[in-house]
Amino acid sequence: MTVSLSTYYRITRMSALYDLLVTAPFATPWTFALVYPLLSHANVALGGAAPGQAQPGAGALRRRRALRVRALDGVGAARSARTSPACGWCALPD
User: What is the average pLDDT across 61-67?
Assistant: First the structure.
């Protein structure tokens, strides 16, 4: 399938315009501040939690994260016996 040069340029221009329209609201803190209320309203309309409220099931996520941290803490404690005091994650040679 071949595309003429003018069609290629038109596709490229439309792609660039789309990129600008989609990313412009997030380009600066000021433009994001203007768009954030609209995004929050859309989130609530689609069944999400309102800003400042916990998502349903957030407690389960916190419990899973706590379990992961505890599991990693055991690994870190075993590793700390062989680490340099200057750099907690830099292992000393055996």
Answer: 72
Band the pLDDT of 79: cuts 50, 70, 90: low
Is 75 contained in some domain? no
pLDDT at 48: 82
Q: How far apart are CA 74 and CA 58, in angstroms?
A: 25
Number of independent structural domains in the chain: 1
Q: Which is nearest to 94 in space by CA: 78, 80, 82, 84?
A: 82
Residue 58 lies in a domain: no
Identify whether 38 is part of a domain. Answer: yes
Place of tokens 């400042």: 52
Residue 8's domain comprises 1-44
Whether 79 contacts 85, CB under 8 Å: no
Task: Look at residues 43, 67, 41, 38 and name the one whose alpha carbon lies nearest to residue 55.
Answer: 43
